[in-house]
């Protein structure tokens, strides 16, 4: 009896460990697709399963979010490497550091240098130049458009005055029909 139960247990474990019939065929074909904005989802071909992930239209041409940020030093921008190298050995006189004698003497120069760099890189400076250029362009066409408008208004005024003169002249030139005069009454009824 012990042998039978051991045999049954061994047989059950073999069946449990063997793959199911559906797993032998390799499974279903699954296609995973990312669809952006209002694009239509692809239709499944045959017995495949289509899994659709819908993303906003603003993400269409962007690097996937998982790949955007990396701590790998190889992905560090060259300018960041250069900036780090720029400050290596910046100590001593005129360096604006607490290291060495006279280290603080360069702080004013560094502040001035940073202020000029900020001003030159500031987007408001570029917007100010763009606004000044647009204003100059508008003012250059303002005189011409004002002259055109003035000429148009004067032409309308002349036309109005000529029409008024024609109307007044036609009233004076029209023959005046006399009003019928009443006959004097002599007291008789006719």
Structure description:
- 52% of the residues lie in helices and 7% in strands.
- The chain has 190 residues and is mainly alpha-helical.
- It has a two-stranded parallel ribbon with strand order 1-2.
- The radius of gyration is 48 Å and the shape is flat.
Distance between the termini: 160 Å
Can you give the mean pLDDT?
Answer: 75
Low-confidence stretches: none
Fraction of helical residues? 40-55%
Shape: flat
Largest sheet properties: 2 strands, parallel
Strand order of the biggest β-sheet? 1-2
Q: Secondary-structure element sequence?
A: HHEEHHHH
Find the structural class using helix and strand composition: mainly alpha
Question: What's the β-strand tally?
Answer: 2
Note the total helix count.
6
Binned strand content: 5-15%
């Amino acid at each position: 009896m012990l042998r039978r139960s051991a045999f049954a247990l061994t047989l059950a474990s073999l069946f449990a460990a063997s793959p199911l019939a559906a797993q032998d065929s390799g499974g279903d074909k699954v296609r995973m697709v990312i669809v952006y904005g209002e694009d239509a989802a692809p239709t499944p071909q045959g017995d495949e399963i289509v899994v659709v992930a819908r993303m906003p239209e603003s993400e269409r041409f962007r690097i996937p979010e998982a790949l955007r940020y990396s701590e790998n030093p190889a992905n560090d921008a060259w300018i960041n490497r250069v900036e780090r190298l720029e400050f290596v050995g910046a100590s001593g006189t005129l360096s604006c550091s607490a290291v060495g004698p006279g280290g603080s003497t360069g702080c004013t120069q560094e502040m001035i240098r940073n202020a000029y760099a900020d001003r030159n890189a500031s987007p408001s400076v570029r917007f100010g130049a763009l606004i000044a250029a647009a204003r100059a362009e508008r003012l250059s066409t303002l005189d011409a458009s004002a002259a055109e408008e003035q000429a148009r208004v004067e032409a309308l005024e002349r036309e109005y005055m000529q029409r008024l003169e024609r109307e007044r002249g036609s009233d004076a030139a029209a023959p005046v029909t006399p009003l019928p005069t009443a006959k004097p009454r002599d007291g008789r009824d006719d």
